Amino acid sequence: MSNTLNLKRIGTYFRIAGDQTLTLLITVLGLLLITFLIGRVIPIDPVLAITGDRVSPEVYAKVRDELGLDLPLWQQFLNYLGNVLHGDFGTSVLTSQTVLHDIAIYFPATIELAVAGTFIGVIFGIPMGIVSAVYKNSWLDQVIRVISLVGYSIPIFWLGLVGLLIFYVKLGWVAGVGRLDVAYEYIIERETGFIMLDAIIHGQWDILSNFLSHLILPASLLGYLSMAYIARMTRSFMLEQLSQEYITTARVKGLSEFRVILHAFKNTLAQLITVVSLTFAHLLEGAVLTETVFAWPGIGLYITNSLFSADMNAVLGGTTIIGICFVVINISSDALGRFFDPRFSRSST
Asked: What pLDDT digit, counting tens, does each position of 88-143 carry?
């Protein structure tokens, strides 16, 4: 009997994995189609972006032919799809490097910022949400809800400017804009692209300290936004669980309040995994304003500068990579959440 149940459960896992893989492929294909069409709809001539405004008609026609812009739209998309599958997003006009090379340089900075912001949001947001649910309608609950509401309401670029004014200009508690001071930019030994890891690997503790001084303010602001969302969702999930009959039964049986709350929290893990994963994904693609305000050399700032320079290869390449990351994180968190969901375990048996 147990062997039959195990085989049934394994079959269910494989079926779900197959469905998730198919969903991933279809979504990524749709994403590539959308980014391709956006690149054709935007009123920016990629030929002029490469050659300049004073190009002769002959050179213009030659470059246009080399880019394949004279081909039918469907054929252009197939060429674009083939290039992307080979990791070729074209060459950046702004840097004269391949877009994939630029992304490999800029993306680690965005990941560092997103990881730090998500970590801060989780460390503070989940306990705040639990406390808010347990002490529903108390003054503590009201304070936490106001803090979360403020996090939703204040624009991140305004918070960034005010934070720089107070903590950098006035108090001098943190470093200024950028990822490192100029003095350290050319002495760090780069291997992974992640400054924290590279500094630890090579024992460059002064560089690590300088990096953390630059990171703390933008990461805290993103962490505040993450905390507001995570706290709100945790409160909602906990209130739902605390109103269930099994909680009443547990209290009647004499379980301590701590164990009751812990049991309720365990049943919210599947939902919280999805919330935290989506928060991280949003920070990957939504930290553009933060990177701009703090001159943080991440993928958001790279895309923004490329857009201002009419560098569509870089814009579409960066957007595609972020979109793929978002889709992969979303689908992976959904699959991971199923393993923490007790309802899934029961249904598979």
From this structure: 888 887 787 888 888 888 899 999 999 999 999 999 999 999 999 988 888 888 99
For 279-305, what is each residue's pLDDT tens digit?
A: 898 888 767 778 888 888 888 888 888
The tokens for 45 are 């001539």
At 259, the amino acid letter reads R
Nearest CA-CA partner of 108 in 193, 201, 223: 193
Q: Which domains does the chain have, with CATH numbers?
A: 95-338 (1.10.3720.10)
Compute the radius of gyration of the chain from its Cα atoms: 25
The answer to whether the CB of 238 falls within 8 A of the CB of 144 is: no
DSSP 143: H
Distance CA 90, CA 29 (A): 18
Q: pTM for the full model?
A: 0.80
Tokens of 306: 């490329």
**Which residues partner with 98 through β-bridges?**
91
Inter-residue contact 228 to 147 (CB < 8 Å): yes
In the three-class reduction of DSSP (H, G, I as helix; E, B as strand; rest coil), residue 299 is classed as: helix
Q: Which positions ≥6 away from 102 have C-beta within 8 Å?
A: 92, 95, 302, 314, 317
What would the pLDDT profile of 176-212 be if each residue is shown by its tens digit?
888 888 888 788 877 788 888 888 888 888 889 999 9
Place of tokens 């958001």: 300
Helix (H, G, I), strand (E, B) or coil at 267: coil
